[in-house]
Design brief:
There is one protein chain. By secondary structure, the protein is an alpha/beta fold. It has 26 helices and 24 strands. Strands 16-15-14-5-2-1-18-17 form an eight-stranded parallel sheet. Strands 19-20-21-24-22-23 form a six-stranded antiparallel sheet, covered by helices on one side. The relative contact order is 0.09. The model has no long low-confidence stretch (mean pLDDT 96).
């Protein structure tokens, strides 16, 4: 099996192609990376900036350079000794432009008689396919016929053979599909989709033929040695994730395979999955959490309550999930409920909805995870005792036949409810302390203790040493450095609360949760361009679905939110006050950034570096985190570092690139050092501010945590880190060191130590 020592994630798009990726391959090798990790590379919807909207899985995306450019990139990576990890999307395909998806086009043209009808998860028993592309109503007066196509503005659809005569409306009525108002989609859709995105139709990869057709090209690349690893997107949306991974492993026995599985704290990865681990959100939660001061919780809870922000996390989460089941995924819930026999349809719908609302994790994988299913049923019964009979029938039906369509669809959909309700709604409503509001996060738990971190790291080394670890991805709500600076606020809750009161009095946002989120975001990304912050807050407001949403707009509120960044920046006195506060937390934020990065790069697992984050990167949620990366600047800084420069910790971010480069090179050149895990515990008055461990007996890592409290307590004083006997050298500075922490951390707040002549 080809397990990379590390990966570097690049976001391919028409503006950054296979050739552009080849152009940075030498830099990645010099940085110390083990494998290029690419976003989806199969043909995607026209103009796609991310590639998750695949339209043709049988060819490399022409907009990226096509097959020839892919082969050139693969050849170069092999020559440089780098692997290639490719992101694949088995759950769905784009149908936004029907004509570019030949399978979907054929289904629309021939209906259930299409040779591709079984490729998509369509409920044919409910009649023609419903396509929600019309305006607010179902008026089809704008339909025209052009040749063998039905046209609605810029939407084109095929006309079935022999049905093209008469008025456009008459032609429309004879097709295997019906164009309906877009608002009807959430309630009446007749095909499974990706979350609530009607342009992404679910694909039935549980069918061996569909699997072969959708995976054949990528698996050919694996067999040829061009692709060494696979990152699998959203397996929870599949009918049988375990069966899928077993088939994938059979066809790619030597590939490194990681699953984008979001694990709840304490939830294990299903043991039957033949994968190397997750894509690392569990590691992100643990690494970021150990840099958050739990003593800050009372102050932030008090501030949130004072401002009118809800602080009962589970209540907020339940309300958000219910919004999803009752308004956003109505069609999916009704389709499941219809499979529950001998139960009143409305009772069945409510029972299904309440069960998914109560899920303690994203989904179960019956018969695995039976305890999670039991907990969901128990939670639903507690919330709705009036549904006891319907819930009992649902429980019995699922337990007695876990492979039934009812059980399968319910498990498929529960993950959608959790993701939409928690990640995409609750995280924008429950804004008490936004650094915790991360994919796979646990916002109601303020930080992670050092001893628990050690336990979880040791478990990863024992169980999934080849799992990916990450701090930033294309899906994170904010980048690692934004989160690291935000974590400092937990050490100064009183100062932040006092400042926020002043700032809000000058220019607040008239929605408490967004107001609190906005100020946390501003100080964590300062100085940020007002346009970037405007776009972020617009998305945050709509995801929260409190004062406005993507579908029901409050134009006046949105205008006020859009004006907020400029109003703050252009108010000289207010902006100066914000900047003064940022100067207070900026240095500790840098320390947190370096600490969590060195931990991620050296702790158990395969570390991924998201594009550009080898320097400071204060990004927000997509699409902000897909901005172009300046590789010229990074090459220049790397060249200075390889020439021996030890950069200062300043706004350039060069100190972070030093840490990334030194850790990655050591990991690639001496992989045997990164085996095993054992805690190291500092001793002395500031011991709680040091997180340390060994991997092999000849490698030790030590980082600073909670730097504000450390300084307030008088620094390291006589705190020591008892190192095993021998001569130890700090790889970052090149000097011999002892366990005296005041000396060890006098240049950088982190240390990467090797013993002997390594």
């Amino acid at each position: 099996m080809t397990v990379p020592e590390s990966t570097y994630r690049v976001q391919l798009r028409p503006e950054f192609t296979f050739a552009d990726a080849a152009g940075i391959a030498g830099y990645l090798r010099d940085l110390g990376i083990g494998a290029l990790y690419a976003s989806p590379v199969l043909d995607a919807a026209p103009g796609s900036t991310h590639g998750y909207d695949v339209v043709d899985p049988t060819q490399a995306r022409p907009a990226l350079g096509g097959e020839a450019a892919r082969q050139e990139l693969s050849a170069l990576l092999k020559e440089l000794g780098l692997g290639l990890v490719v992101d694949i999307v088995p759950n769905h395909m784009s149908v936004e432009v029907p004509k570019v998806n030949r399978w979907w086009w054929d289904v629309l043209k021939h209906g259930r008689d299409s040779e591709y009808a079984a490729f998509f998860d369509v409920d044919w028993e409910r009649g023609p396919l419903l396509l929600p592309v019309l305006g607010d109503d179902d008026a089809v007066g704008e339909l025209t016929v052009e040749g063998d196509e039905l046209v609605y503005y810029d939407h084109r659809f095929p006309i079935a053979p022999g049905t093209g005569t008469g008025t456009p409306q008459e032609v429309h009525e004879r097709q295997h599909y019906r164009l309906i108002g877009w608002r009807r989609g959430n309630a009446e859709l007749t095909y499974r989709r990706f979350f609530d995105i009607t342009n992404l139709a679910g694909v039935r990869v549980e069918d061996p033929k569909v699997f072969a057709e959708t995976h054949g090209e990528v698996l050919r690349w694996v067999a040829d040695g061009d692709v060494t690893g696979l990152r699998v997107d959203h397996p929870d949306g599949l009918a049988d994730p375990g069966g899928y991974f077993r088939r994938l492993r059979e066809n790619a026995p030597d590939a490194w395979i990681v699953a984008e599985k979001i694990l709840h704290p304490g939830e294990p990865l299903p043991q039957s999955w033949p994968v190397d681990g997750t894509t690392g959100y569990d590691a992100l939660r643990e690494i970021a959490g150990v840099f958050v001061d739990p003593d800050g919780e009372p102050g932030f809870t008090e501030l949130a309550n004072e401002l009118g922000v809800q602080t009962g996390y589970h209540r907020v989460e339940a309300e958000a999930r219910r919004l999803v089941t009752d308004r956003i995924l109505v069609a999916e819930v009704r389709r499941i409920a219809a499979l529950l026999p001998d139960v009143d349809p409305e009772q069945a719908r409510q029972a299904v909805a309440e069960t998914m609302i109560a899920f303690p994790v994203y989904r179960s994988y019956l018969p695995e995870g039976a305890s999670h299913w039991a907990a969901a049923i128990a939670g639903a019964r507690e919330a709705r005792p009036d549904l006891a009979d319907a819930l009992a029938r649902l429980d019995t039906a699922v337990r007695e036949n876990p492979e039934s369509e009812l059980a399968t669809r319910l498990q498929q959909t529960s993950g959608m409810v959790v993701a939409k309700g928690t990640e995409d709604t609750t995280f924008y409503r429950y804004t008490r302390f936004a650094a915790l509001n991360e994919v796979g996060g646990n916002p109601d738990r303020f930080g992670l203790g050092v001893e628990e971190f050690h336990r979880l790291a040791a478990e990863r080394e024992a169980g999934y040493p080849a799992a990916m670890t990450t701090l930033t991805t294309h899906d994170t709500k904010r980048s690692e450095d934004t989160r690291a600076r935000m974590a400092v606020l937990a050490e100064v809750p009183g100062e932040f609360a006092e400042a926020l009161r002043r700032w809000t009095a000058r220019r607040g946002i008239d929605e408490p949760s967004l107001n609190l989120l906005a100020w946390q975001t501003l100080v964590s990304t300062w100085p940020i361009e007002p346009s970037r912050l405007r776009d972020y807050l617009d998305k945050a407001a709509k995801e929260a679905k409190l004062r406005t949403s993507w579908t029901d707009h409050d134009e006046a509120f949105e205008a006020d939110v859009a004006a907020w960044p400029e109003d703050v920046v252009n108010n000289a006195e207010l902006a100066a006050d914000v900047e003064a506060f940022v100067q207070r937390i900026e240095g500790p934020g840098y320390a947190n950034s370096l600490g969590q990065k060195l931990v991620q790069l050296t702790a158990p697992g395969v570390p991924d570096v998201y594009q550009g984050t080898e320097l400071w990167d204060f990004s927000l949620v997509d699409p902000d985190n897909r901005r172009p990366v300046d590789y010229v600047a990074r090459r220049e800084i790397l060249a200075r570092i390889t020439d021996g420069e030890l950069p200062e910790i300043d706004a350039s971010g060069a100190a972070k690139l030093l840490v990334v480069h030194k850790a990655l090179r050591l990991r690639r050149e001496h992989p045997a050092l990164f085996r095993g895990y054992r805690p190291l515990r500092a001793e002395g008055p500031a011991a709680a501010h040091c997180l340390a461990y060994t991997r092999s007996p000849d490698l030790a890592v030590a980082v600073t945590r909670l730097p504000v409290g450390l300084e307030a307590g008088g620094g390291w004083r006589d705190t020591v880190l008892p190192l095993p006997a021998g001569v130890w050298t700090d790889v970052l500075t090149g000097r011999e060191v002892t366990g005296d922490l005041a000396t060890l951390f006098d240049r950088y707040p982190v240390a990467l130590l090797v013993r002997g002549d390594v």
